[in-house]
Design brief:
The chain is mostly beta strands. The protein is 5% helix and 60% strand. The strands form 5 sheets. It has a 35-stranded mixed beta sheet that branches. β22 and β23 form a beta hairpin.
């Protein structure tokens, strides 16, 4: 026994340390006014510095209160706040686990408006820059994940791909109980966290995620924080489903989640072939530090139809997803986000187009059977320390994506064409960022980003086409196009910042370097199997180097209701590139100012105005001088001209909000003017398309107007919303030697209603109407009459009915209709239904679902422009019946 005493002693010491770090925080005291009179009914809130509320209490008649929280750490930056109507709010820091904090509140002279309480439950509450949505108030019985609820929140928009926006701007962070577990891949949370495990959803306005920069670099973007219920933080949670149905469809998923203070994770596995695209789970809504070069080759034709993806997406896929976060000592966080996706996708489509030229009409017609295979591995390691005086962040990313696409075509030029596009994209990067703040308030920052990309790809077209042009009229087996743009990129800078009460300034100096090669080769394969290069004019060996040295001062002035931000980047740029027959060098020193002005017209409403000027040059994929076969009928070369575009953009908006009445309104617009020095000279024939850049003063512009409204109607328990947008653009095309001035315009009206008629009936409606048209303008052209507008309607209705407390039914439908002048209206209706039986004691749901009851098998859509018409037709998933078990553990 004695030999175990040291070990037992060590365990006890560790337990004592753990208890000390995570002991209960208990605060008590009294609240009085400036004359020493006790104040009752004062709201007392215990919260983190970032605004997350941990506990609250109300003072009694003698002004006394007691507030406590069982799972807090004294190392956290905690605050206790006292708030009462007619008195100035007051906050005091918590410095001990047990502490007495007394408040003396001063009366405020501000005259408060009359307030009518319309409901006994606060479903939306504003605290400073934080909006708190009560999840239960917006949930229905058939909602499963928190993403279902977020789509219903007034003032919040969710795009089809899951991107969340507030006030028309995408959010810049997504937190789970204050921790950034998923970064930009927050679809993982919205699609997996059960809505009944979430207490409230917080929108953190003007959110600066780096604590060191909170009063130095202002943010105009919002963040979202998911505040979990206590029961969700206690232990490991699990959820999943298993489903099977006809015709030969299945769906299986298992998800394990843990949301404790020290450790958080969401780890799951999914498999399906029922039309749910698993790659949507791992979309990065925050983008990439360096955008990878575009794909040079393509085997596609008509793209995707404007439908919900589940209608036309044929797949057989599996996804393994790991997202783990550990809070270490000294406020460090270690995070790993890794995923592996394998997916086989199938699509049958038809594509036809007609180009109306002055003396001819060129038509293309294709019928395609395509298959795409993906194997995507992605992993990200992140180490972060986000303190008030110190920030460190290091992110290492490794991505590898092999893909293989095959497409069998019946085309205008040949009734039996086969395309195969294969390649692998490998992306390695590391970003290191450190910021230190001195006691005097000055910040010093250093950042380094290094990225390398490899993306070789091969497109093989069989049989050999264009025998006259490529093989002296003799038949041959195939054309094989090889292409890739290996890339090295690095961006490094240092900055210094200083902040006062009204004036913030920051100065950045950096170096940016890019080294790329564009390598391409077109080979001809004879029937014997021998391969030869087609010609020198189809071989690209382009070397590209771009060096940028930049200085960027940023100034922010804040006074009363006004905030003005001015940024004046000055960049020395040196671009050098060499091809087969030339060497080029271009240098410039552009100044590209940006100005942002925000004026608060009320407590919650404001006006903002943006202006920016950009002077940009082309990338490597726009200066290759030899021909490249992008697809079986598209051959492009850009020559050695370096395109330059000068862009002026101005935008403005008025945002109005009344939190008490849950009313949101905004209106705004934007105008952009572009002037470039080149234009694409496109040549179209019945066989192929060709394009090349030529010198040209290319001027274009675009205008947009929008308005949005969102309101919660208390008596009807209903959220209504609408958005109206209008756009117009003017540009120039050069088609078969003819200069065409094109004007595109259109408008869209969206409306949505989500209502609870009663405890047993919920109805949701989403609809849109759009009109778009195109015409030729100007005096010197051979014009066709302006094409009448293409009009489209879309309606979606879902109704949920509760027969008993455990039996629910849902029926939904979508209707798509569009009108093209000169043809019949096309109309499609989809109907789905489901019946769910909740077995609460077993934590299981049994669901029977029926999809596409109307039996739609194809969907056809079309678009018109001033000189062309394009029509596409797609195969639709057939009727499906599935039995699914949902389970929790």
């Amino acid at each position: 026994m004695r030999k175990h005493r040291p070990r037992l002693f060590s365990v006890l010491v560790l337990l004592l340390i753990s208890c000390a770090l995570h002991a209960q925080v208990a605060i008590n005291g009294a609240v009085k006014d400036s004359l020493g009179k006790p104040l009752g009914s004062v709201s007392i809130t215990l919260k983190k510095r970032n605004g997350i509320v941990l506990a609250f209490a109300i003072t009694n008649a003698t002004g006394a209160y007691k507030v406590q929280y069982a799972n807090a750490s004294v190392k956290d930056t905690l605050l206790v706040e006292a708030n009462a109507i007619g008195y100035k709010k007051q906050m005091n820091p918590v410095i001990a686990a047990n502490q007495v904090i007394d408040f003396k509140l001063n009366a405020t002279s501000a005259k408060l408006p009359n307030v009518t309480v319309q409901n006994s439950k606060t479903i939306l509450k504003k605290e400073g820059d934080t909006l708190n949505y009560d999840v239960a108030s917006f949930s229905s019985k058939l909602d499963r994940t928190i993403g279902d609820v977020i789509r219903k929140l007034p003032g919040v928009e969710v795009a089809d791909n899951g991107q969340i926006s507030v006030g028309g701007k995408p959010i810049n962070r997504f937190y789970i109980d204050g921790d950034n577990l998923l970064d930009g891949k927050y679809n993982i949370a919205t699609k997996t966290i059960p809505n009944d495990m979430v207490a409230k959803i917080q929108v953190l306005e003007n959110h600066q995620p780096v604590n060191v920069l909170k009063d130095l670099v202002k943010s105009e973007s919002a963040a979202m924080n998911i505040v979990l219920k206590d029961k969700a933080r206690l232990k490991l949670m699990g959820a999943g489903d298993a489903a099977a149905g006809t015709p030969d469809v299945y769906n299986v998923s298992v998800n394990a989640m843990l949301f404790k203070k020290q450790v958080k994770f969401i780890n799951y596995t999914k498999f399906n072939n029922n039309g749910v695209d698993l790659s949507d789970d791992i979309i990065n809504h925050f983008g990439f530090e360096n955008q990878p070069p575009p794909s040079l080759l393509s085997a596609g034709t008509g793209g995707d139809p404007p439908l919900q993806k589940k209608r036309y997406f044929f797949n057989n896929a599996g996804l393994f997803n790991v997202n783990d976060l550990v809070n270490l000592k000294n406020q460090y966080q270690l995070r790993i986000n890794a995923s592996y996706l394998f997916d086989k996708q199938f699509q049958n489509s038809q594509f036809s187009s007609a180009y109306f030229l002055p003396n001819d009409t060129i038509r293309y017609s294709e019928k395609q059977e395509g298959r795409k295979t993906l194997n995507t591995f992605s992993t990200q390691f992140t180490l972060t320390a986000n303190k008030k005086d110190y920030f460190l962040n290091n992110v290492t990313i490794v991505d590898n994506t092999p893909s293989d696409i095959t497409a069998a075509l019946n085309a205008t030029t040949n009734s039996n064409i086969s395309q195969r596009l294969s390649g692998t994209v490998t992306n390695l990067s590391n970003k290191f960022n450190i910021i230190k703040r001195t006691t005097g308030g000055t910040t010093f920052e250093a950042s380094s980003f290094i990225n390398t990309i490899r993306n070789p790809s091969t497109l093989q077209v069989e049989p050999g086409l264009y025998t006259t042009q490529f093989n002296n009229g003799n038949p041959y087996a195939a054309l094989i196009q090889h292409a890739g743009i290996p890339t090295f990129y690095t961006d490094n800078y240092v900055s210094i910042g200083r902040s006062t009460a009204k004036f913030q300034q920051q100065y950045k100096i950096g170096v940016n370097y890019q080294d790329q090669q564009l390598n391409s080769l077109l080979e001809l394969q004879q029937a014997s199997g021998n391969k030869v290069s087609v010609a020198d004019s189809f071989v690209n060996r382009l070397h590209w180097q771009r060096l940028k040295v930049y200085v960027q001062p940023d100034f922010t002035y804040t006074s009363g209701r006004t905030m003005l931000r001015v940024s004046i980047p000055v960049t020395y740029q040196d671009i050098r590139y060499s091809g087969r027959l030339y060497q080029e060098q271009h240098t410039d020193l552009p100044v590209t100012p940006r100005v942002y002005l925000k004026y608060m017209t009320g407590k919650e409403d404001y006006i903002n105005i943006n202006y920016n000027y950009n002077n940009s040059w082309a990338n490597i994929d726009q200066v290759y001088d030899a021909y490249l076969m992008r697809s079986y009928r598209d051959f492009f070369t850009n020559g050695n001209l370096l395109s330059q575009t000068q862009r002026h953009a101005v935008s403005g908006a008025y945002q109005f909000r009344n939190t008490l009445k849950i009313f949101f309104f905004s209106v705004g617009g934007a105008y952009t003017s572009n002037e470039g020095n080149t234009i694409s000279d496109t040549r179209i024939s019945s066989l192929i398309q060709q394009a090349k850049l030529i010198p040209y003063q290319n001027i274009s512009n675009s205008s947009q107007l929008f308005g949005t409204i969102s309101k919660y109607i208390f008596p009807l328990l209903t959220t209504i919303g609408s958005k109206v947008s209008w756009n117009q653009s003017n540009s120039v095309q050069l088609l078969n030697g003819e200069q065409l001035q094109i004007q595109n315009s259109g408008y869209t009206v969206n409306a949505n209603v989500n209502t609870k008629f009663s405890s047993w009936l919920t109805i949701a409606y989403n609809g849109s109407f759009s009109s778009s048209g195109s015409k030729q303008t100007g005096n010197n052209h051979t014009s066709r009459p302006a094409t009448p507008n293409v009009v489209k309607w879309q309606h979606e209705v879902n109704a949920s009915v509760a027969f008993t407390s455990n039996v629910y039914a849902k029926i939904g439908g979508e209707n798509y209709r569009y009108h093209i002048p000169g043809s019949q209206d096309n109309q499609y209706t989809f109907v789905d239904a489901s019946l769910t039986w909740k077995l609460d004691k077993l934590k299981t749901d049994l669901e029977l679902s029926l999809t596409n009851l109307a039996g739609v098998d194809t969907y056809t859509t079309a678009s018109l422009s001033a000189n062309s018409i394009v029509e596409s037709s797609y195969r639709i998933r057939p009727r499906m019946a599935m039995v699914k078990f949902y389970f929790r553990f």
